[in-house]
């Protein structure tokens, strides 16, 4: 899922309001469990209850100004997106396993199919990671892929490292050195609660996004940054507030796309073909 252009390039103050109001008013509608959207009176109440000024959001007649209307539009967009599109794309463990097995039979992959990090009866293939790996292998046209980088992502110019990211990412194309694209995978099929590890995953993606944005601004080097997310129970039933934050960081420009659950089947092949074209152009220039 790509960002809506209407909400890109917003000022930091816009996102400050989004975060404050989301926190104060709540991310979900009580009783329904759906992601909430807010109207003018909600905006005023959310600011008031936190002793924040709200006069700057309204004109002299007391009507919402353009900034306030943009806030309301974003809240409506975010709620509709998550309720109507993201929710039905999220898979549970059973569905993810079935998709993994179907692809494995169809593709006879040679790429790594890693296991999850759990033990006992919960130990199994890391289904989403395996699905991502198989689809990338199928559509990468023989180019190399680093399915499991064992080093920090580094950008090199003339043999000199100019940036090294703070943490290892989950995959890189074609390499973790001067990559075209990097990605992270957040699958939590066997969790029974929304733990701090899941929340940390969101903040890790934000950190990577900050570093990649700085690289683009200071060095004019673009590395595409993707996030693959799945598990219905963890993200929808327990972590809707963090789904909202993922949509926020997507529109803040810290990740190029977030791919939710089974969306990976149709979207990832197109992305990989784009990466191969970009790599061909890069090779031709050098």
Descriptive notes:
With 286 residues, the protein is an alpha/beta fold. The chain has two domains: 5-89, no CATH class; 93-285, no CATH class. Helices cover 49% and strands 10% of the residues. It contains nine helices and six strands, in the order αααααββββαβααβα. The strands form two sheets. A four-stranded mixed beta sheet has the order 3-4-5-6, with helices on both faces. Helix 6 (196-219) links the parallel strand 4 (181-187) and strand 5 (224-230). Helix 1 (12-25) packs across helix 2 (40-48), helix 4 packs parallel to helix 5 and helix 6 packs parallel to helix 8. It is globular and about 65 Å long. The two termini are 32 Å apart.
Q: What keyword list fits this structure?
A:
alpha/beta; globular; 286 residues; 6 strands; two-stranded antiparallel ribbon
Mean pLDDT: 94
| Share of residues in helices | 40-55%
SS strand fraction = 5-15%
CA distance, first residue to last residue: 32 Å
Shape: globular
Uncertain residue segments: none
Give the total of beta strands: 6
Radius of gyration: 21 Å
Class of secondary structure makeup:
alpha/beta
Question: Strand order of the main beta sheet, please?
Answer: 3-4-5-6
Order of helices and strands: HHHHHEEEEHEHHEH
Largest sheet: 4 strands, mixed
Q: How many separate domains?
A: 2
What's the number of helices?
9
Topology, please?
Elements: H1 12-25, H2 40-48, H3 66-89, H4 93-107, H5 127-139, E1 154-157, E2 160-164, E3 171-173, E4 181-187, H6 196-219, E5 224-230, H7 232-238, H8 240-251, E6 257-260, H9 263-285
Parallel strand pairs: 4-5, 5-6
Antiparallel strand pairs: 1-2, 3-4
